[in-house]
Amino acid sequence: MKWLIVVFMLGTHSDGTKDTFLYMQPEFGTLDACRNYVYIQAPIIKQQMMIEYQGNGIETIYCIQKDKIEQYLEMPNKGELET
Asked: How far is residue 1's CA from residue 39's CA, in Å, rounded to a whole number?
């Protein structure tokens, strides 16, 4: 099972959506490997998101299973990820 990083930004748009950034690389073989990477790379991730979203802050960062992301992206009515 592969894990990816997903970043949710602070704030909500008027339609209820949130700015979200999905890192397709790197992929991780375990949840712990993903978490450790995020912990170590947090300053770099924060800097990248500040540039990408013009200074908007990060709400949270998740490590999510790649197959769950793919499942979500294939859904006709995108809603909550199944756990």
From this structure: 21
Q: Comparing C-alpha atoms, which of 59, 37, 36, 56 is closest to residue 47?
A: 56
**In the Cβ-directed half-sphere of 65, how many Cα atoms lie within 13 Å?**
8
Distances (CA, A) of 26 to 7, 38, 66: 14, 11, 11
Report residue 11 CA to chain centroid gap. Answer: 15
- What does the alpha-carbon distance between residue 3 and residue 32 come to, in Å, rounded to a whole number? 10
User: pLDDT tens digit string along 36-58?
Assistant: 999 999 999 999 999 999 888 99
Predicted TM-score of the model (pTM):
0.81
> Domain locations in the chain?
3-74
